[in-house]
Amino acid sequence: MKTVQDYIRTIVDFPHDGIMFRDVTTLFADPRGFRMAIDQMLHPYAGQQIDKVVGLEARGFILGGAIAHQLSVGFVPIRKKGKLPGTTISQDYKLEYGEAIVEIHDDAIEAGEKILVVDDLLATGGTAAAGISLIERLGGEIVSCAFVIDLPDLGGRKVLENLGMDVHALCAFEGT
């Protein structure tokens, strides 16, 4: 029987030499694989109150939208700077090669709402930590962070756990 990990393609030396890119588009393209991933991402939260799902740009939108639909709750995107049309708050964070800024609409989350953070991949944890900061600044209470893939060698899980987050991932790949 296939697992979620079996649907994920690895592309060698993308986007730089030495990187093993874990491509979830092959998972998304397969109806059984995609359904399996969504169902497994939802499973730990059965019976828990979740008011909104927050997806991190960009593959977190695909997963987060499907999960929000299954939970019958709202979906909120966290986007790269300059992509949201309304009034936003922003958070900068470090990337492997430089810095980036993510934003959320300042009215997207009400204080006290229970939030599930979703993305495809947990690497260094920088993007997720920036998203967590935005959610908390708006008063959201994060229930958990859910990912398809964890890259444990890059330490992102530890970063998020040190922030007090509950972290779930469907599979892990060694290396970068």
Read across the widest sheet, the strand sequence of neighbours is: 5-6-4-3-7-8-9
**What is the radius of gyration computed over CA atoms, rounded to a whole number of angstroms?**
15 Å
Could you state the order of secondary-structure elements as H and E? Answer: EEHHEHEEEEHEHE
Helix content: 25-40%
Word description of this protein:
This protein has 176 residues and is an alpha/beta fold. It contains five helices and nine strands. The two termini are 27 Å apart. The mean pLDDT is 96.
Keywords for this structure?
9 strands, alpha/beta, 5 helices, 176 residues, globular
Short description:
The chain is of the alpha/beta class and 176 residues long. Helix content is 28%, strand content 35%.
Outline the fold blueprint.
Blueprint: E1 9-12, E2 20-23, H1 25-29, H2 31-42, E3 52-56, H3 59-71, E4 74-80, E5 88-95, E6 98-105, E7 114-122, H4 126-137, E8 141-150, H5 156-162, E9 167-172
Parallel strand pairs: 3-4, 3-7, 7-8, 8-9
Antiparallel strand pairs: 1-2, 4-6, 5-6
